[in-house]
Amino acid sequence: MALSRLCSRSNGFLKPATIALPIHRYVSTNTSPITIETAKDFTPHLCEAPSRAVETSSEEMLSFFRDMARMRRMEIAADSLYKAKLIRGFCHLYDGQEALAVGMEAAITKKDAIITSYRDHCTFLGRGGELVDAFSELMGRKTGCSNGKGGSMHFYKKDASFYGGHGIVGAQIPLGCGIAFAQKYSKEEAVTFTMYGDGAANQGQLFEALNIAALWDLPAILVCENNRYGMGTATWRSAKSPAYFKRGDYVPGLMVDGMDALAVKQACKFAKEHALKNGPIILEMDTYRYHGHSMSDPGSTYRTRDEVSEMRQIRDPIERVRKLLLSHDIATEKELKDMEKEIRKEVDDAVAKAKESPVPDSSELFTNIYVKDCGLVSYGADRKEVKVTLP
Amino acid sequence: MSAIIHGAGAATTLSTFKSIDSKKLVAPSRTNLPVRSKRFIVAGSDSSNGLSVRQSQKLIPNAVATKADTSATTGTGHELLLFEALQEGLEEEMDRDPHVCVMGEDVGHYGGSYKVTKGLADKFGDLRVLDTPICENAFTGMGIGAAMTGLRPVIEGMNMGFLLLAFNQISNNCGMLHYTSGGQFTIPVVIRGPGGVGRQLGAEHSQRLESYFQSIPGIQMVACSTPYNAKGLMKAAIRSENPVILFEHVLLYNLKEKIPDEEYICNLEEAEMVRPGEHITILTYSRMRYHVMQAAKTLVNKGYDPEVIDIRSLKPFDLYTIGNSVKKTHRVLIVEECMRTGGIGASLTAAINENFHDYLDAPVMCLSSQDVPTPYAGTLEEWTVVQPAQIVTAVEQLCQ
Questions:
Q1: In chain B, which end has fewer C-beta atoms inside a 10 angstrom radius, N or C?
Q2: Does the ipTM surpass 0.90?
Q3: Local structure of residue B373 (DSSP, 8 states)
Q4: Which residues form the Transketolase-like pyrimidine-binding domain (chain B) (predicted)?
Q5: Which CATH number fits domain B272-399: 3.40.630.30, 3.40.50.920, 3.40.1790.10, 3.40.50.980?
Q6: pTM
């Protein structure tokens, strides 16, 4: 039984005063609109900030909780799998930043494109990717989303317009502007969210691509996920001007609290409208990652443990939504805990299933190099074995 | 020496004819060579005229076979210059498929720095012929991103050397995305531009990027050398689902040739038989083809019978055509414009040695450009690249 009400501060826990609650409460799936205010203001640059009052619904809030909990669980499971040496190479985890993936999805459709960097597991999930596909890919199995040939940094989902998954810092920005160009060319009324980090914000190709996007009025939204550290270097040590949303100069920008899923949703909605009419806009999401840059980085040499635990206590995105759910009486403590247990089981099942998937066979080494692999003969390293004559 | 060879014996004959039994050529020397009469080459893709030819010992004025009218069977062709042929191919493809667009510096209103895209902006508009700012990395990346969604951009580097700035995009995103996405995304881009040595442009503007790009898995590289194959390769490259890099040469843009009126496409992976022969296989591509043909004139007058193949496809190599030729002649000379170290010739030498070692009577010789930055001074620039005299000497050496 959701109560539609305006809550002045999301930190306030105003419980309903009088209602006698029935013995069995069903978790609310009400879709009638609730308006909640974001905790912080948006800071605009060359544009009007959107309002702090976000329209949402119980169902959406619950989906936020569920999706974020699932993402969190997935990343933690990936952490243990990496330590168990089932995942190799690089593994960049997104926990702490889930609000971004989830809030963005709430504001857009599957026709809008997303392209991001190597920290892509949760974005993949947000775009509709399956847990099993993700874990299989991480463990290098055939059933992975890229057939095991991409790895952690190369998740893609074409049918959901998710363009990946890119290892080289900043290289996805021109790609993203190219996708926006194609959307404009084909008159699709869709936008592209090109995500990059505070480290990539110093790449020249960003400014090159931004120039073209602004010149040609492309529906590109550049989202800077500012998690304060470019691997081990803090933003104040790498950028003369760490106000990334202003760096576009002639391109409008917006600074958003990236740990608040509702704020992210509002900003993305605003940005989509803006981009379809006026061309590119930069969104800076103030967010934080709990893990280090990747699994080989402990994450404690360049920041204090206090800082990390402070973030967990004060700004954790899942906790924030949990509090909102409780305060708006959309679900009880127990229901949410049950949900989390269910999700944990879901993730464990997916991991188990992925562990049993087969590895790709050796002929896969030579597939998908070319389309239709045009009449080539391709050799293995010793030129004697594993030779394939491609049709 | 660096003059453009106009309407050069750009023999694009694909015909075959009965040749002398190879047993007689085991020890080629002038006295043993049989007599040949003046031959007619009828160019046609499937002609198999069984003309038996014999070589005379006197001076042959027409040693380099001139291409007869290719469209003898279908009507008159039309004569045009190489850059016009490229433009024609591009225009036809843009007419045919609305997904094809062109992006590059000064391709639109200016008409292209070598006039390949002249008139296209007026015809197709600014959204299909895009003038980009000077940011190779970004606009190459944008072309690749657009290709991921299904567009077919033709990305022009004003000079191939500038594409070094886009190396990351070409290597990681263009070449590898089809693989790392498990086949989900195809990248049907064409990256083209002029490169090569000539016109005294200096070191940075005379680069041969085929040697740098040749290791990138997932791309195809082709080099055009005549108006006929320029148009054909351009069309094939645009229609191909794979990323193709089309190498043009700064000195070849004004070559004139008559090409067929009707539509045709050249095979991207096929090499071109320029001049069939018996004694030695000369493999070449792009501008060096003309130096080779010039040397061939001299060689024929001296009594040699070189087989000249324009390999056209730099990645992958057409080992089928090359192999058949090696099996026939048993001697190989590679003449290229790449640098000695790590060039196309180096890879081709390795490929031939590995695959056809048993058929070789002499080591594979590779003539390449010197490993130096291309100097500005005309005489020095000439000596950076392979000259016909060197080719003649090399053939004589190999055929001893």
A1: C
A2: no
A3: P
A4: 80-255
A5: 3.40.50.920
A6: 0.82
